[in-house]
Specification:
The chain has about 160 residues and is an alpha+beta fold. The chain is about 60% helix and about 10% strand.
């Protein structure tokens, strides 16, 4: 058995409200996408700070949420952030003139400073921070989308 229902709207104000919702929903969802990108940026920076993996502010400053177009936002990060997150554990020679040599002399413990003075090598490992920041961000995605959809439904 098939039931057909025909709905007619005779009230012009109700018809106009539905049209406003239809017109505003894509913009609000696009804004939700950029809001989510800014949340990812904030969480990536927070993870770097929380794990104490930043020595210079270069990586922290290079994590940026950018709006590429009306409906597309992206999070940019310096390549060294991906390397820091996904590098394979390996030995690094502490030669003079390298940035890691300068780090070892300024921030390293005593035994690392002694190794750096004689240009020895140290064992470095990855410092994963991207996955935990993304997991924290995805937990907040549904409330962001809900808030933006409610805003469109309320006519905001």
């Amino acid at each position: 058995m098939v039931i057909a229902v025909k709905v007619t709207i005779r009230n012009q104000q109700a018809f106009d409200n539905i049209n406003k919702i239809v017109l505003k929903m894509p913009d609000n969802i696009a804004d939700a996408g950029h809001e989510f990108a800014k949340l990812v940026q904030r969480n990536l920076r927070l993870e770097l700070t929380r794990n104490q993996t930043i020595w210079r502010r270069k990586l922290w400053n290079n994590i940026q949420a950018r709006k590429k177009s009306k409906f597309r936002s992206e999070v940019f990060m310096a390549q060294e952030g991906v390397w820091l997150d996904r590098a394979k554990p390996h030995h690094v020679k502490l030669k003079r003139g390298r940035l890691i040599h300068r780090w070892a002399m300024q921030k390293g413990r005593e035994h690392i400073q002694r190794i750096a003075q004689r240009e020895g090598s140290i064992y470095v490992r990855p410092h994963p921070f991207i996955d935990s920041a993304m997991a924290r961000s995805f937990n907040r995605l549904r409330p962001i989308l809900k808030r933006r959809a409610d805003k469109a439904l309320k006519g905001g």
